[in-house]
Amino acid sequence: MEKRNLKQTDLEVSRLCFGTMTFGGQADEAVSQRLVDCCIDAGINFFDTANVYNQGRSEEILGKALGNRRRNIVLASKVRGAMGESPEDKGLSRAAIHKAIDASLKRLGTDYLDIYYLHQPDYDVAIEETLEAMDGLVRAGKVRYPAASNYAAWQMADMMWIARQKGYRAATIAQPMYNLLARGIEQEFLPMAERFGVSSVVYNPLAGGLLTGKHQQEQPLVGSRFDRNQMYLDRYWHPAYFTAVEELRRIADKAGRSLVSLSLNWILHHTRADCVILGASKPQQLEENLKTADEGALTADAVAECDAVWAALRGITPKYNR
After folding, report:
1. Which partner from 7, 27, 204, 227 sits 20 to 30 angstroms from 234, CA to CA?
2. Which CATH class is domain 3-175?
């Protein structure tokens, strides 16, 4: 398993990170244990969760599954989502962050997190308050590296500027969405990351499963991420995306690959993403994806054809900047 040093940290991680959103939901405790074991056997040392994944069950199951192997793992979780009804049970206020970290550490059975993401912006709380709270966690030894998920390029730069002014440890690890159907981070986010030394740990490499090619627009597969999940339906369930998937399938067939192979190896070999988050609900699915992700780089022609699919999705709107 290829490893990579996350920029401005001492963390050496596998390029494939295992995301545990399915733990406690699509994957029960026994299946989740097998998934963790499979990852570690394959050389994955990077695991991602969040307090809101199945209302804390993902963290509980992951912590138990790792057991005494935790010290050899780079462990990441997130804060922002609602875990209760009180004001301190959601958001990125000082009180909410301090309450959330203690609860996450308890569920995970550890006394620190290697990476702690702000899961998404909280526009009701001043960013200065949020960053001060995160710095407090670093100073207390509860968090090694603060990070941010679903933040815009300008917001990352703003947080780094404030951290420099205040003497805080800056968030230099980011988790944006990125796949062959959603390449918006290429315009500003990835150039920002390269300029300021930010590592990009990207999620949704298979567009929630749309890039497996198994879905028909008429009806989501029962039990899939699109089944009764309005957020994912709003994100990906559009005619233009289904048209693009068919074009990408044609490119994959021409290259002698599966659509999953095209999607994963495009990110791993032809983008500036540092790491890719893979999820799974079954060990067989994970094993197949791990094997597929090791099939190597695409041809220049295949990359160019993928670029053409994105150009059609993006449309003719010009960039605002030069």
Report:
1. 27
2. alpha beta
